[in-house]
Amino acid sequence: MTPIPPRIFKLLLIFLGLGVTHHFGNDALRLLETDAPSQSIGTPQDGSLINGKRLPSSGPGFRTYSRFGSLIGRTAVNHRVRDAILEAYATTHQQRPETTYIYGETGWPQGGRFRPHHTHRNGLSVDFMVPVLRDGKPSLLPTAPWLKFGYNVSFDDQGQGQSNELAIDFGAMVDHLTALDQAAAAHGLAMEVIIFAPDLQDDLAAHGGSSLLSQLRFSRNPSWVRHDDHYHIDFRELAP
């Protein structure tokens, strides 16, 4: 057998190292975090974060929108938000084991300006990508880089994708928001505002979300980004 030339061997090792770092890097960095509680300073629009915590890249029933995005630190939150998110995912995995939820961008471990977002600055803002059905079965929202990691997927006012095979799973979204609301309260948080396309909120109500729409604060005004491919949540810490 012809031996691999040293130069090619080195290149293979480099690519292997990059692949391992890409896949496992975020979770390796999580092991280096301290147990010190997070401190959210200021507001989601103008704030910072001390001791931000990275979200796991994946787990039972959930995954990140981008392992690279998580690796470079774009999915860090306040420790209370992290714990609430993971508890809610544990609940939805029991309810819907066939569904894998995807979370989107959250913010830097130190908070601060987080382009291109207008908020996400103090560890209390989270984007959740919409759960979807493909041909009527649970599937994953496409999050390829050329689709802006899922942020460039479009749905009409009935939740249908550009190709009719893809549609928002409103029932799964209702279950997630319900679990998240309960988990947030258990961890000293409340959902301050939920930004989701106003023209899709009636569809959410039609799939069991009427009580959520009446009990929680959904933004009724169109935002600068339509928010049909994801729902943005700003959390608020409750007084002890």
Main CATH class: Alpha Beta
Number of E-state strands: 13
Span of the ends, CA to CA: 69 Å
Question: What structural class do the secondary elements suggest?
Answer: alpha+beta
Quick one: overall form?
Answer: globular
Strand content: 15-25%
Give me the CATH architecture, please. 2-Layer Sandwich
Count of individual helical segments: 5
Average pLDDT confidence is 92
User: How many independent structural domains?
Assistant: 1
Which residues form runs of ≥5 with pLDDT under 50? none
Key features of this structure:
240 residues, alpha+beta, Muramoyl-pentapeptide Carboxypeptidase, domain 2, three-stranded mixed beta sheet, three-stranded antiparallel beta sheet, 5 helices, globular
Task: Describe what is shown at a glance.
By secondary structure, the chain is of the alpha+beta class. It has helices at 6-30, 67-71, 79-95, 170-186, 201-215; strands at 39-42, 47-50, 53-54, 58-59, 62-64, 76-77, 101-103, 125-129, 132-134, 137-139, 166-168, 189-195, 230-237. The longest helix is centred in the N-terminal third of the chain and has 25 residues, at 6-30.
Q: If you had to describe this structure to a student in words, what would you say it looks like?
A:
The radius of gyration is 19 Å and the shape is globular. The chain has helices spanning 6-30, 67-71, 79-95, 170-186, 201-215; strands at residues 39-42, 47-50, 53-54, 58-59, 62-64, 76-77, 101-103, 125-129, 132-134, 137-139, 166-168, 189-195, 230-237. It contains five helices and 13 strands. It has a three-stranded mixed sheet. The chain has a three-stranded antiparallel sheet with strand order 8-13-12. The N and C termini lie far apart (69 Å). Helices cover 33% and strands 20% of the residues. A hairpin with a 4-residue loop joins strand 1 and strand 2 (47-50). The chain has one domain (47-237): Muramoyl-pentapeptide Carboxypeptidase, domain 2, CATH 3.30.1380.10. It is α+β, with helices and mostly antiparallel strands and 240 residues long.
